[in-house]
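Hi there, hope your week has been kind to you so far. Thanks so much in advance, here it is.
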Amino acid sequence: MTTTLITGANKGLGHETARRLLAAGHTVYVGSRDEARGQAAAERLGRGARAVRLDVTDDASVADAVKTIEADGGLDVLVNNAGIEARGRNNEVGGAADVTADMMREVFETNVFGTVRVTHAFLPLLLRSAAPVVVNVSSGLASLAHVSDPDHPAAAYPGVAYPASKAAVNMVTVQFAKAFPRMRINAVEPGFTRTDLNGNTGTQTVEEGAEIIVRMAQAGPDGPSGGFFDLAGPLPW
């Protein structure tokens, strides 16, 4: 039996990923900052889903989640899905003229430091697994190659904090993959998916967006590691 933890799994991509992995036979811990919402999500998902309160920005919350999952038997797969985007005036993304250090700090606290905090805390459990996997949900906006290419759609995105945070997640992915060669650790780009993160303005469904997350969550010991992927294959850094 494969046991998986997904952060930010009470809705959106995390919830759909949980549904798909449950269907594939995983036991899935539905990580959620709000205990009631997490419990409601686990009940919707049904058999094999277990709610666990987990705020990726809070050390004590993460430590408690580790204790809960360890007591239940351990962990094989970690999906770092929880993420936020900075919003400035008129609910617009913080472009270069408007972004502040505080906005950057808030986004990095969840997207980068949260990913590191959770991964570091669960490393002892993952290293006990016969086939440990970590999936870091990144973004196509993290690709310096794409964002700096005037002919690529990503170049039109004006925000600073979110793509910078996801570029940092990509570097964290590479360095962790090198440090733990027995683990499969990859960053993924779900695509522009309709979720609360973008005010449901995305161009694809959560079912479509979750596909690459689900695929990488099921990577075997001979699968890739230290890469950045979307459904079509490797992406440029």
